[in-house]
Request: fold
Amino acid sequence: MKTHVQYGKDKKPFVNISNQKYDFDEIDQLTAPLKIFNRNGHLITEYAGMKICEKQLSSVYGIFDFSSFIREGLPHIHHNFNAQAYNLNILRGVQQLKVFGDELVINDDIYKQVFNVFSSTNGYYPLSISVGLFRQVCSNGMVVPVKGLASFNIKTKHFHKAVENHILDFQKRIPLLEDTIFNQQKTLEGLFKADISLKKVVENLILKPDSEREEKKTLLKVVQRLGKKFIHSETDKIIIEDYAEEQIEILKNPTLLLTNPTQQQMDIELNKYNVYNCYMELFRERNTAIIEKESKRILEALEV
Reply:
């Protein structure tokens, strides 16, 4: 344990571990010294008896006991997939644990089973917990929600009831984990086996009857950015040499299928998996809640 605890210039201890072989006892030993408590209306974060963060509390703040959650919840998680490695970060008012399970190869892309817990005691970040398949090329991961199954992603501000209710709900859903990951895999494989009209995707994204006017404006810009990903994505760009010049113009800016009368009659068939990955690349650096929201949106547009 001593080799993993470091000290900054301010003499405060911190933990920053990447790609360490999974060891539950080691994780427990490293998180046990973390103490989070209320002292006279101030949220105090201590590690190994030293104060590393202090923040004034609001009356509705709910404390998330990071170390207790890991100690009690992690055995249930790694029971459902074969834990291989972990990352752990405890630095001032930020705490994060990522546990990596088996790798899966889907359509020549590598996905990993990942359990991620991110919390803060500095007031800057909400509590976020997720379990599922993360695409290796994505720095923020890509969790695929599957219709009809409970979501394994929660994000909530540190309010008393919100924290308590979300944790209880998450614990109830753990038995579904194995089925959820299996269905995520099948969803991705199914996307690879099917094509779809690009015009249909654009219409499904932008022309939904329940979309607000401002949302449609935003989605028009998103679709324009999607066209750039079709051309320039490092991992999923479309081979434009396979298309005519007029079709390449549409790939560069798919909104032309709705706005340009001369091109509205044209269309292109694209692989659903390709479209999905290019779309999700737009949100690669966003938090898990936005990734889940946009993943649902594009899956609906792809008629999955």
